[in-house]
Amino acid sequence: MTDLISPIDEAGVEAAVHAAMSSKTPIAIRGGGSRAGLGRPIQAARTLTTEKLTGVTLLEPAELVASAKAGTSVAEFEAELAKAGQRLAFEPFDHRALYGSTAEPTVGGMVATNASGPRRVIAGAARDALIGVRLVTGRGETIRSGGRVMKNVTGYDLVKLACGSHGTLGVVTEATFKTLPIPESELSLVWEGLDDARGVEALCAAMGSPFETSGAAHLPATANAPARTVARLENFESQLRYRAGELEKLLKPYGAAARLDAGASHDLWGEIRDVAPLLGDAARQVWKISVAPSRAAALAARLGPLVAAHLYDWSGGLLWVAVEPTDDAGSSSLRPAVREARGHATLVRASDAVRAAVDVFEPEAPALARLSEAVTAAFDPAGVLNPGRMHVRH
Amino acid sequence: MSGIAMPEPDPRILARRDQIVAGLREIVPGEGVIDTEDERRAFETDALTAYRRMPLAVVLPSTTEEVAAVLKYLNGQGVPIIPRGAGTSLAGGALPQEDAVVVGVSKMACVLDVNLADRTMRVQTGITNLGVSGAIAHEGFFYAPDPSSQLACTIAGNVAMNSGGAHCLKYGVTTNNLMGVTFVTMEGEIVEIGGDAMDAPGLDLLGLICGSEGQFGMVTEATLRILPMAEGARPILFGFPSSEAAGAATAAVIGAGIVPVAIEFMDKIAIDICEDFAHAGYPMDAGALLIVEVEGAPAEIDEQLARIGEVARANGATSARQATTAAEAAAIWKGRKSAFGAMGRISDYICMDGTIPTGRLPEILARITDICDAAGLKVANIFHAGDGNLHPLVLYDMNDPVSLAKAEHAGEEILLACVEVGGCLTGEHGVGIEKRELMTAQFTEAELFQQMRVKSAFDPNWLMNPAKVFPLELRAETRKAA
Ligand SMILES: Cc1cc2nc3c(=O)[nH]c(=O)nc-3n(C[C@H](O)[C@H](O)[C@H](O)COP(=O)(O)OP(=O)(O)OC[C@H]3O[C@@H](n4cnc5c(N)ncnc54)[C@H](O)[C@@H]3O)c2cc1C
């Protein structure tokens, strides 16, 4: 049982980090805990949670900006935004389905893991929407970077750095995002029966068209369903009809498309975001692989025997692979293949023991690893925040 | 010479000049090393032309390996380095110092690879911004960030400054369209960061390097996100009786759930000068104008412009004129994109670059007027209204040192006002030397020291573009703080 620290304000976070520094005892950082299975397991006597730092602190739809404290649930933040007709364009990835977790994802966790969903392919990642942060560094100092305006190059972009740093640089206490209006409607086009290579090719053609495809996924055939290649359009109702027609024409070589109306489209993209088609067997280990779309299908084919289930999102740029459980999650054959395809792989679901034994994140080349370590040390010289969550430190 | 100080050159480096030049010649052959005074003069300033410093030497390597060897050599010799693209920085980002070697990427300007299926492109960073879009236009693709200086400025400068442009409201700035770089460290190592796969895990060093103002190392190649062109695009011009009304209309359009590709603002003085230059048919009786551009198929454009027109009229627009031909559209943009040039024909100016929350627009415009009135200076306002990025051009007379000092002071006051209302010192031009001493107005000492520690992580000896971004006084202290 580890000690739980639950500060009610930034000063409390600072105090906790100071205490960790002076006693040289690392602390684990947690939001709601819904993403606890992500990253390397770490040994820490105490856990600091941001769950009591809550509240939406800014919401200006006419300026496309909103802020929330780190412990605010993503659900609450999105609900507040929706009331103002706004949303987070990157479609936050939700790790709950993947981990079978019932914990509540928080804004801080979303930032720390750069958790982006299907719309990332056109709208950018969480890190692209994030325009300001407050964080308590591993030196116990509260700093701000960015702000509440969309265009800001004043000083280094520590906002990007904080996003996806898995709590190894500082504890994010508040985050500010660029938001976008929720479009009037959406629909999806679905082509059936394409193989992986053709499916990804069709998605790339859609992304290369001027019709602003906002979701592009290929769900390979399963025992009881044919393959589905799905393209989503979001817009004003009147524009949607036109664009869907044009996209169908453009993709005619791939066969006729079925149309999913707003409701069905919304549901399907929820499943794709949650990687539902991969989740059948809870024991299976899951990899998230980023690779250029043009090399994705060949990579999946090469991984062939290892793959228990897979799907492509981000126009093929994101390959999800589930493997049957083994001690190294197939790492020894998967990593070289991914490297050869110039991609990178993250082991997003496996037991603590497996995630402690193999690299969870793509190993970095030595020069890059040195830079990352130097930057980490600039924020957390004593190594007290989530030490070893990303890579083993030297 | 005017207000902003530069560090005293190190006499020990100046004394070793011949030896350093000889060392550089061993790495970069022939014309790649420039040491005559005449030729060096071309590199003594950037677009902040009030400041000039003759560099020790200039090196123009042809390969990443040469850049690596040059950095390793100069780092070993303890000689400061000023990376340079095209020298269009408005913040003095590429301003040399007498004891520094300028390392330029102008000889590395090739397109290395285009992949339309992946929507990516690999270039050497000496290529111009327009050169990138030009290389893929025939395929129906483009590179989105479009600084007004795009004819001249390089991807190297864009990455270093995280540059933006008029169309960034929809497409984002450089950092949102950059997927990878080849980065040369001070130790002369060549590191690939990111690439053509999205969202590399690990710390986002790519995001950190973008906007680091050439203070970490040098970027020699880049992988860029390229995008399919819209079916069409059409600007519309709205005239408003006042700047306030134009500001309110901007907020109302965005508030109505419409995000155009661009919303650009000009006040009366800017309208007069740009119209005189571009003959774009700007409304001469208006107190301010907005250029709003939307994209799509013709019918889609009609529909969006109708919605926007409604909102604009409800907010007091007195005139509206759509471009009906490509030539008219080009003329509308020519007026805007050549605004700085047009202004330069009639007066010297300093171009400020603060950003504000758009809701505070009327208040800030009034303050800018007050500040410049009090200084007895004219000001023209041109800016990216949709994202609150202001470009007040404070007019002065280069031959009158008093007038320059007044303009710099007024500029500072404007930027401080931007920070005060919740904005920032610079939206896209960077800090450089220009806003260096103002950084303490936006950041606490702890925040500045944290940023400086990050620089030290890349460049422990503080040789890379060292006199930029941070107040000079703080630099001495970082050594202690690091
Ligand atoms: C008329 C005019 C209009 C402009 N309009 C805009 C605009 O709309 N939007 C906008 O954002 N900016 C604008 N600018 C500013 C300027 O063009 C940009 O900052 C541009 O990115 C600078 O590019 P450059 O190639 O000229 O870089 P330089 O001026 O040569 O250098 C800029 C910075 O980049 C660093 N650098 C250069 N090369 C490298 C490298 N290889 N590795 C690491 N660091 C490097 C330099 O040290 C310096 O700090 C404008 C400038 C002018 C003169």
UniProtKB/TrEMBL annotation, chain A:
It holds the Pfam family FAD_binding_4. It comes from the Bacteria. This is FAD-binding protein. InterPro entries: FAD-bd_PCMH, FAD-bd_PCMH-like_sf, FAD-bd_PCMH_sub2, FAD-linked_Oxase-like_C, Oxid_FAD_bind_N. The lineage of its organism: Bacteria, Pseudomonadati, Pseudomonadota, Alphaproteobacteria, Hyphomicrobiales. Keywords: FAD, Flavoprotein. Residues 1-182 form the FAD-binding PCMH-type domain. It comes from Chelatococcus sambhunathii. PANTHER family: D-LACTATE DEHYDROGENASE, GLYCOLATE OXIDASE SUBUNIT GLCE. Coiled coil: none annotated.
From TrEMBL, chain B:
The keyword Flavoprotein applies. Residues 51-229 form the FAD-binding PCMH-type domain. Pfam families: FAD-oxidase_C, FAD_binding_4. InterPro entries: FAD-bd_oxidored_4_C, FAD-bd_PCMH, FAD-bd_PCMH-like_sf, FAD-bd_PCMH_sub2, FAD-linked_Oxase-like_C, FAD-linked_OxidoTrans_Type4, Oxid_FAD_bind_N, Vanillyl_alc_oxidase_C-sub2. The keyword Disulfide bond does not apply. Its cofactor is FAD. This is FAD-binding protein.
